[in-house]
Amino acid sequence: xxxxxxxxxxxxxxxxxxxxxxxxxxxxxxxxxxxxxxxxxxxxxxxxxxxxxxxxxxxxxxxxxxxxxxxxxxxxxxxxxxxxxxxxxxxxxxxxxxxxxxxxxxxxxxxxxxxxxxxxxxxxxxxxxxxxxxxxxxxxxxxxxxxxxxxxxxxxxxxxxxxxxxxxxxxxxxxxxxxxxxxxxxxxxxxxxxxxxxxxxxxxxxxxxxxxxxxxxxxxxxxxxxxxx
Length: 229
Description:
14 strands, seven-stranded mixed beta sheet, alpha/beta, 7 helices
């Protein structure tokens, strides 16, 4: 089972070539895209033949997790290719703008949803953010959880209890009080679940947690890197 980081920043990319949130999971030649933030479509095209991409999970509808879905439509139209999108229903204009397109087959999910996509099984847990946000637990040869954006909450513990690897929104500096976990949360989770590999993502353009995570065993996400679980 493999996880490739296409973009790791939020709420906007880093000057130069940093992109916002998007990740690619591969298991037995089945592919799942996790979010599709700004600048990441070109990286997705470089990582995989788009015709093999049939499934996309959208954790929540903030722009830094969804914006490249808009230009993705042009490519899907050229390829005459349709993808399944798994996301929570929201009564909003942005939901309609994003998803009302003939090349998007939208499947609305909640905590009671289980979906099989080839060799992977998906389940979902609500998180705690400024808007409705869901984590996805992906069971294949191993188990990966992607938290989306979230503050610490009890469902984060459920993610760790079920997973071999957690791709977690936990990259903000100690003392950060916004709607995201910080590196202190990450360290506490690593101590509680030492058997779980943690990749810290959703990084700020002006703060790299790598030095502060040194010696903890927690991995600071690197764009363009593929992690094998």
